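Dear support,

I submitted the protein below through the web form. The confirmation email said the job was done, but the results page showed an empty box. After a refresh the structure appeared. I'm attaching both so you can tell me whether what I see now is the final result or a partial one.
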Amino acid sequence: MNAHNELLRIMERISDSTATDAEIAQFNSWCDAFKDEQIKIDHLEEIKERVLLKIHSRIIKKPYVIPLFIKRVAAAAVATIVFSIWFYSSHRTPPNVNTPYANDVAAGKLGATLTLANGKKINLTVAASGNLANEPGVVISKNSKGEIIYTAAVSSNTKADAVNKLETSNGQQTQVQLPDGSIVYLNASSSLSYPVSFANKAERKVSLDGEGYFEIAKDKAHPFIVESKGQEVRVLGTHFDISAYRDEPVSKTTLLEGSIIVSTAEKQSTLTPGSQLTNDGRKIDIRQVDTEISVAWKNNLFLFEDEELGQIMGQVERWYDVEVTFSDNIAHERFGGGVSRFSNVSKLLKSLEATGKVHFRIAGRKIYVSK
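What the results page shows now:
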């Protein structure tokens, strides 16, 4: 059996949780060889197709953990394992996934609160599908998937200053289709303020606090503008993600397609697809990134690459609605990997613990982190 077929066989066995320790060790050895140089993998598309089919066929039937302790095979190969569970560090010991925590915390879910122009609040978590409200010039509804949709009403009577606000708390995320057809995914502990209607407006301007993924409807005559944490993003029609939490030291703007202009008080920058702008309030930096990691939350995944534990646990706090306390100086340790956002928090914590660098204890809705 040649090396390519052997790689395919082991990856398939890892994807259905039947790989032996020896096979995982062999796979890790290959990954070590790949991380320092771009080695061409023949038949990669065949490998991707067969492995992803196996993972997809099992992802609904039964959640499971796959210990793939890898760093970086190649840019294209990341897609092969994006639905599996993988963590890496200098310690590569497969986790004992059968040892339960004394407590566990369920993942977040779809939900939000909508505040209408008149101040009325609608709890979208419990609201039934169908018509939610009629604002001047628009009808607001909730479809069977829980998505919020704004539809222009027959009447064109709109209030120019009417604004709605969509908010998620910890443990919630939501999706809204704005009056112009643009779609926004809102992450946990975030809010989006926007006009009830964009009619008769020169610009389509919204305000974001937290994180949102935007798919903007094209309209060259009416630029779409997102204001967030000391910056302004201007677009005509494109896909991008903004993470601008008030309690995070750095905001990140990541472009997936098209182009956007990011403006701060000091500088104006144009982003190209695959680039990410970071802004800490003093310095602007632009670099190429793996966009799959930046928008993983929108695809119901946690994905990290060489990220500080403090940043990872910040996301854990928001999505699982827990409080995290560090008892040791470990917040700056870096980890990478991923887990389904549908999984209980123990799945993520056990994968991190498998590195041998960190330990977790769950007490109620508190998670204690130590070396």
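Response: this is the final, complete result; the empty box was a page-load delay. The longest strand covers residues 204-215.
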